[in-house]
Amino acid sequence: MNDSSNLVRCWAAQSFVNTPDPRAVDTLIAVYDRSDAEIRFCCTEALGVIGGEKAVLTLRRALNDANPQVREMAKFRLAQLAGRRN
Questions:
Q1: Which residues of 13-27 are buried (b: 16+ CB within 10 A; e: fewer)?
Q2: Cβ atoms 25, 55 nearer than 8 A
Q3: Which residues are CB-neighbours of 56 under 8 A, at least 6 positions away?
Q4: What is the CATH number of the domain that holds 28?
Q5: Above 60 in pLDDT, residue 72?
Q6: What number of other Cβ atoms are within 10 A of residue 77's Cβ?
Q7: Which residue stretches of 19-67 are H helix?
Q8: Which of 5, 20, 21, 40 would you call most buried, defined as having the most Cβ atoms within 10 angstroms of its Cβ?
C-alpha cells in the first residue's frame, strides 16, 4: 500500500475485496485518508467488504467524499453491510 504507483495501490486494496482480512482495516483507512479519488474508491470498496466498526466509520465519512463515485461506493457498501446484519 506504500507503492508510488496508484495502480499498484488500487490492486492492493482490491485484493481485500477477494480475500477480506480484518487486519487490513487500519491500513486501508490510513491509505484512504492520504490518497486521491481513485485509491479512496478502492479502499472504500475493500472496507465495505471487510466490515467492522472502524470500516463503517470510514464508510460513513466517505458518504461526504468530494468524489461522487467514492460517495456512491460508500453508500452501496454500507447498504450491503446493513443487509448482512438482518
A1: beebeeebeeebbeb
A2: yes
A3: 78, 81
A4: 1.25.10.10
A5: yes
A6: 22
A7: 25-33, 37-50, 53-62
A8: 40
